[in-house]
Structures are given as structure tokens and as C-alpha cells.
Amino acid sequence: MEWKNLETQSDIDELMQSLDNFHDSCIKDLKYTSGTYVDEDFSMIMNTDPVVNLFIQRQSEFMTTIEFCLEGVNQFHINNILDSTLEIFEASFFEKDGNFYWYSSDDIEDETATSFICKKIKWRELS
Is 120 a residue whose pLDDT tops 80? Predict the structure, then answer.
């Protein structure tokens, strides 16, 4: 499938509606690329534009697996408390001051939520 950019709150609202606010979803996988590396002279090349690819699965025949590509990631918080459920019942997702905020809970103050803040985001359906 082709990548779709999220640019406005309206884009986010449309996606959230089609995904039922991520109800009965889970984070299946993620890949973090810092952009920082060691070159052939063993110099550390610093990059300040990390990218995260986040894979979400849903208990639905419609858009079962979705991949998000997050660019300009300012924050990515993973919470994996094993004595609580990792199922997403309802997520929060919004744009504010040029950043995109996503929380695996409808309560953005929930300290058990996985969350991210990024500058750019795009998504595609994988299945």
C-alpha cells in the first residue's frame, strides 16, 4: 500500500474514526533508527533526526495491520508493565504546535501508556 501523510487534525480525526480510536489494538513491533553512526575513520557522525517505524495490529478484518513512520521523533516512551494489559482500548492522537502526539490511552496523563511525539508522520495499511 501507498504511504499517506498525516498533516492536519482533520487527517488524524479521519484516521482515528476509521480505526475506531485504535480499540482492540496492540503494538506488534517497532524499529528505531537513530541516524547516528560510526564512519570509516571511526568518527561518530551525529544525527538528530531519528525515525521510528511502528506496527499496530487490530482485532478487525478491516485494516488489520498498520505501519506508522514517525520522523523527527522528540520522544518515544514504551511502557511494558507485564502485570497489566498491553491491549489498546482507546488511544489519543492529536497535532499541537507543529508536533504530533499519540498515547496508547485516552488519558494522556496515564503513566502506563506508550506514547510518542514527532514532527512528521505517515501511515500505510499492510493487511
Answer: yes
| Contact status, residue 6 vs residue 122, Cβ threshold 8 Å | yes
Euclidean distance between CA atoms 75 and 92, whole angstroms:
16
Instruction: Print the domain residue range for 107.
Output: 4-125
- For the chain, what's the residue count? 127
- Cα–Cα distance measured from residue 92 to residue 115, given in angstroms and rounded to the nearest whole number: 9
DSSP letter, residue 68: E
Q: Is the pLDDT of residue 87 over 90?
A: no
- For the chain, the straight-line distance linking the first and the last C-alpha, in angstroms and rounded, comes to 9
pTM, to two decimals: 0.90
Structural domain total, the chain:
1
Nearest Cα to 93, choosing from 3, 4, 23?
23
Q: Taking 80 as the threshold, does the pLDDT of residue 37 lie above it?
A: yes
Looking at this protein, which amino acid is placed at residue 58?
R
